[in-house]
Specification:
The complex is a heterodimer of chains A (about 200) and B (about 600). In chain A, about 70% of the residues lie in helices and about 5% in strands. In chain A, strand 1 and strand 2 form a beta hairpin. In chain A, helix 1 packs antiparallel against helix 4 and helix 2 packs antiparallel against helix 3. Chain A is mainly α and about 200 residues long. Chain A has a two-stranded antiparallel sheet. Chain B has about 600 residues and is an all-alpha fold. The chains are: A mainly alpha (about 200), B mainly alpha (about 600). At the A-B interface, helix 1, strand 2 and helix 4 of A face helix 4, helix 5, helix 12, helix 13 and helix 14 of B.
């Protein structure tokens, strides 16, 4: 106990903040690698088009705008976060709005998953996902849901902390906003990459 | 841990019960999810396994930190000290503890259990192969043994150095008070821990008939044991990403004052490069496993040609991870022995820059060679030439590593303790593993050798002969700092010779069998391979005996070995400046580094 003053929790907020930002950015590299695998799968199977089954004849797809609408909440929440970083007084309300937008995004994504137009039936009348396009779409949709849940959690935390801001270390809170900013920026970029990829039917 | 287990089991049972009994067929049909029984069984199993993992983590309190962050009430210093196990005795080793030394010991025990069980499976494989026509195990069990041995050993070896020593020793080596993210550190271990029972459950679910590579579409058609495999990989990938971010951040941001990059110990550099390579590599394997899971549960068709899928997609995603993974295992092992060599010959590390260039060159090239695993699969034959060149080019940075170690040993007077013996063993084993790797990277030679026991012998020479030998050397070297006791010398020497001599007999015999054409992963073989296989099995028993002796030496020394002095090897790195038991925050005063760690023969500042 005598050595507690050297413990990391007593490092300066700037030091802790920079460290947390680096850690988050490395985790983003892992997430980006997963996105790379999804994009690779999309274009690989699309170009291979085995048995003409990337998009079999007669299979319906979502409209061109759907994938962009599905990721738009990422961009909106990113913008709310950017404004919240500049306006400390409005941090709580703005991040609440960001959280709300992300919840709407998750609900819309779930709605799309529940109404996929490319479900076909096999000889026994059992449904299956018709074509590699459908398979890849489901993977992107699942990834989107995961990111909505995770980003929503972060937005909710930032909103609550924004409302409690006067009770917390101001410098460290600023850093935590910056750290979260790396994540919001990434999900917006990742969302755009996903939407572009899914535009190639 | 007890609470975690109970909550995890409850989560798993509730999930299983709800899916099995309340997610009834009419409901599923109305929601367009009337899957076949096989697909539904896979959904139930996969969800139950994830529920176990989640429940266990909830039960041990892994989410207290994030929850408190969410509600804006961060953990207090007192609560953080409690989480660090301050003053809690041995019980802290069985709970969610954020002290990096405790996490290091947890990893060490975990590694020993994983390698022990994987090694036992290896002995069963070799027993079955002792004579042709042996019925020690059935062919189906043999297939599962091969798959489970492979994946258990791969996971065990990936964490063999960066887990125990990367957590316990490395922060002290760089003069840090702790890891950058102590809660994530504990999380990385306990997440991984939840995968161990999941992987073990494969035995009760029909095994893994695909080998550790889990090629599709074999994996999408295999029995429910495959569900355990893919959940294990997904959990492991999460653990690896978290651990990689933590170790990398710690090294980049928490080095002691004065520890510029050219003063960072080479083991730290090697471990950091290894985990930095793992962070982007493993998610592609995770993605491949998610796709396998979707094919097995929701009837998607990533790997089903009828639905527009392709097995080559899996092969690409798997090997984009698979080859860097070899170096994720190898680099820390070699780096540990580079750390050891200067200490035991009392000479500076020869060309620190060449060592870093070697590690960085290997890491960089490792992501450009994956398709050499697919030469004979028919995927893009026009790329065989380029991939052959990139693969053979890896021998250049690997050669630098040899240069560094041999240059360090050159004209030195070695102190032949157990860690130093491992340095010599690694040089020999990696030489053979490396040269045979060049044979296999050559397309015409691979045309003959691929899929044979020659390949099995090659990768065992690199992964076991070099990396695992590095881990054993690291264990012998850092054992005094981690346990406060010296490793029993007679027993450790005996284990070394049993393992190393047995290893040569085992795998040189396997090279012969492979060169003669014996296929790998086959439970039986023709009479013509009988002598080679008998020789290999005799060698395997010697290796097994060596590891039993080593295990005895570790347990006996830990309990009642000779008490270790603070710096038994006279080394210059910072971990030897702290006493045992290492204080909670490692150093009484923040250390200041004034020289490089290998300044033997130079005046100490």
């Amino acid at each position: 106990m005598a050595n507690t003053e050297f413990h990391m929790h007593h490092d300066s907020p700037e030091k802790v903040g920079r460290r947390e930002r680096l850690g988050v950015r490395i985790l983003i590299v892992a997430d980006a690698s997963f996105l790379f695998a999804m994009v690779f799968s999309w274009f690989y199977l699309r170009n291979l088009n085995a048995n003409d089954a990337w998009l079999p004849k007669g299979v319906k797809t979502f409209g061109a705008a759907t994938s962009w609408i599905a990721i738009a909440p990422y961009i909106v929440s990113f913008l709310f976060h950017r404004i919240a970083m500049r306006d400390k007084a409005m941090r709580g309300p703005l991040m609440t709005l960001a959280f709300a937008v992300l919840v709407i995004g998750a609900v819309y994504q779930w709605h799309l998953i529940s109404h996929m137009p490319f479900v076909a039936q096999d000889d026994n009348g059992r449904p299956y996902y018709n074509g590699a396009y459908a398979s890849n779409w489901i993977l992107f949709a699942g990834s989107n849901m995961f990111h909505y849940i995770l980003t929503g959690f972060i937005a909710l935390g930032l909103a609550i902390r924004g409302f409690r801001g006067n009770l917390l270390d101001a410098v460290l809170e600023d850093w935590r906003q910056k750290v979260a900013g790396s994540w919001f920026t990434w999900v917006a970029i990742g969302g755009v990459i996903s939407a572009i990829t899914m535009s190639f039917k | 841990m007890g609470t975690g287990t109970i909550v995890g089991v409850i989560f798993a049972l509730v999930t299983y019960y709800v899916l099995r009994h309340h997610y009834s067929s009419p409901w599923r049909h109305n929601h367009g999810m009337d899957l076949t029984n096989t697909h539904f069984e896979n959904v139930t199993l996969i969800c139950s396994m994830f529920a176990w993992s989640l429940g266990f983590l909830v039960g041990i309190g892994a989410f207290i930190g994030p929850f408190r962050w969410l509600i804006g009430k961060d953990l207090t210093d007192e609560e953080n000290l409690y989480l660090a196990g301050d003053g809690q005795g041995i019980s802290r080793y069985f709970r969610y503890c954020t002290d990096h030394k405790v996490v290091g010991i947890q990893y060490l025990v975990g590694v020993m259990i994983l390698l022990g069980s994987g090694g036992t499976m290896a002995m069963m494989i070799r027993t079955n192969l002792a004579t042709p026509g042996s019925h020690f195990v059935t062919p189906i069990v043999y297939n599962s043994l091969v798959g489970l041995h492979g994946i258990t050993m791969i996971i065990g070896l990936i964490i063999a150095l960066t887990g125990p020593f990367g957590n316990f020793i490395m922060p002290i080596m760089i003069g840090a008070a702790d890891m950058a993210f102590p809660r994530l550190n504990a999380l990385s271990w306990w997440v991984l821990f939840t995968a161990i029972p999941v992987l073990s459950s494969a035995w009760f679910l029909g095994g893994i008939p695909t080998g550790w590579t889990a090629y599709a579409p074999l994996s999408t058609q295999a029995g429910p044991g495959m569900d355990a495999f893919l959940v294990t990989i997904i959990i492991f990938a999460v653990s690896t990403a978290v651990a990689g971010a933590n170790i990398t951040t710690t090294v980049v941001a928490m080095r002691a004052k004065g520890m510029s990059w050219n003063r960072v110990p080479i083991f730290v550099i090697g471990s950091t490069i290894s985990v930095a390579l793992a962070v982007p590599a493993f998610p592609t394997f995770m993605a491949a496993m998610v796709q396998t899971g979707l094919d097995r549960t929701l009837t998607t068709g990533f790997y089903n040609a009828q639905q527009g899928g392709s097995g080559w997609l899996y092969a690409n995603l798997f090997w984009i991870m698979g080859h860097p993974e070899v170096y994720v295992i190898l680099i820390p092992g070699v780096a540990a022995l580079m750390e050891i060599a200067p200490v035991f010959v009392r000479k500076p590390l020869f060309s620190f820059g060449a060592a870093i260039a070697g590690f960085a060159g290997i890491a960089g090239l490792s992501v450009l060679v994956w398709a050499h695993h697919m030469y004979m699969a028919g995927w893009m034959p026009s790329l065989n030439g380029p991939f052959m060149i990139t693969t053979e080019f890896i021998s250049v940075p690997t050669g630098l590593l040899f240069l560094v170690v041999i240059g360090t040993l050159w004209r030195g007077k070695p102190w032949l303790k157990m860690p130093m013996l491992c340095v010599y063993a690694m040089l020999w084993n990696l030489l053979i593993g490396g040269i045979t790797g060049i044979f296999l990277s050559d397309v015409p030679a691979d045309n003959y050798l691929h899929g044979s026991m020659f390949v099995t012998a090659h990768f065992h020479y690199t992964l076991m002969g070099a990396a695992l030998t590095g881990a054993i050397g690291g264990l012998a070297y850092w054992f005094p700092k981690m346990t406060g006791r010296m490793l029993n010398e007679p027993a450790s020497y005996a284990s070394f010779w049993f393992i190393q001599i047995g290893f040569q007999v085992l795998f040189l015999g396997m090279f012969m069998a492979g060169a003669e054409g014996q296929p790998r992963r086959v439970a039986d073989y023709a009479q013509v391979f009988a002598h080679s296989d008998l020789v290999s099995t005799v060698g395997a028993y010697s290796v097994g005996l060596g590891f039993i002796i080593l295990l005895w030496a570790v347990i006996h020394s830990w309990r009642s070995g000779k008490v270790a002095p603070m710096n038994p090897w006279g080394a210059k790195t910072l971990e030897w400046t702290v006493p045992y038991p290492v204080p909670l925050v490692n150093f009484d005063e923040a250390p200041v580094v004034k020289s490089d760690p290998y300044g033997y023969g130079r005046k100490v500042e």
